[in-house]
Write a structure and sequence with these properties.
Helix content is 48%, strand content 14%. The protein is of the alpha/beta class and 284 residues long. Strand 1 and strand 2 form a beta hairpin. Helix 8 runs antiparallel to helix 9.
Length: 284
């Protein structure tokens, strides 16, 4: 299937999702918000891959929200129409924000690890996209900026709920209040980025190597790790301990454990069961 904003390939159980609008700095057009969840949910629902890598083309990972989305040519002149627009604006805006948030929520709620490979700028919504992924990798020239403050906005698509769980609160506040650029090395130093590479080609090669390592593991166990890590992040230690006990009591597969042990001992690839298909559902 072809998309306006992405190229998608699946090789060796790794799905590579590439933002493909370099001439537009990979800005997030209206189509972006529909296509991203469609792609991720399809891969997850049908277990088409064991790992997802998101990268981009051109000078920036993403320049964030396409500002043309702020224009609304549908407003009809006239006092009654203007009054209706004024009264309904907040409700419509809220629904739009929820839709956009859902587009990134699917990265977190899908069972498959999602790795972001970032070059150039992760600007505004680009930060939201990156922080919704499981891991982030960057080139030397990469940077992050909570750009919304520079255009009179408060970031609303996922920046703050996720960023404050990845880096210290004081740094989040500084980025939010100033809109300054955080270089890749600083991002690595505070834990936002896992590793930094010299250039785009090197980064993609290394990230794909990490993806292959993840893809070699038992999918059911990897999905369990993702679920438990996210749950533990959002709950108390006691709740996390209880949930992992319940999870393994119902989900631990003895055959997969034995296969993993046997494959490791024999230094061969494991023959693991894929994740079952799942019905389409709304991400929360």
């Amino acid at each position: 299937m072809s998309y306006q904003c992405f190229d998608v390939t699946i090789t060796d159980k790794i799905a590579h999702v590439v933002l493909n609008r370099p001439d537009k700095r990979n800005s997030m057009s209206p189509a972006f918000w529909d296509e991203l969840p469609e792609i991720i949910e399809d891969i997850d629902r049908h277990s088409r891959a064991r790992v997802i890598v998101i990268s981009s083309t051109g000078p920036h990972f993403s320049s964030g929200l396409d500002i043309s989305m702020f224009s609304d040519a549908s407003i009809t002149p006239g006092a009654d129409a203007q009054r209706q627009e004024r009264l309904q604006h907040g409700a419509r805006f809220y629904d739009t924000v929820l839709r956009m948030q859902k587009s990134f929520n699917v990265l977190e709620s899908c069972r498959i690890p999602v790795l972001a490979a970032i070059q150039g700028g992760a600007i505004g919504g680009g930060v939201d996209l990156a922080t919704a992924c499981d891991m982030r990798y960057a080139t030397e020239d990469a940077f992050f900026t909570v750009f919304e403050i520079n255009i009179g906005m408060t970031a609303d698509v996922g920046t703050f709920p996720r960023l404050v769980k990845l880096i210290p609160e004081g740094i989040v506040r500084e980025l939010a209040y100033t809109g300054r650029r955080m270089p890749a090395r600083e991002a690595q130093g505070c834990g936002l980025v896992n590793r930094v590479f010299a250039d785009h080609a090197t980064m993609l090669a290394e990230v794909m190597a990490i993806a292959r390592e993840i893809a070699s593991k038992a999918p059911l166990a990897v999905a369990g790790c993702k679920r438990m890590i996210t749950y533990s992040r959002d709950h108390s230690t006691a709740d996390g301990l209880d949930y992992i006990g319940i999870w393994n009591a119902s989900m631990l597969q003895r055959e997969e454990v034995l296969e993993a042990i046997s494959a490791t001992a024999a230094r061969r690839p494991g023959e693991f069961v894929e994740l079952p298909a799942r019905p389409l559902r709304n991400a929360k």
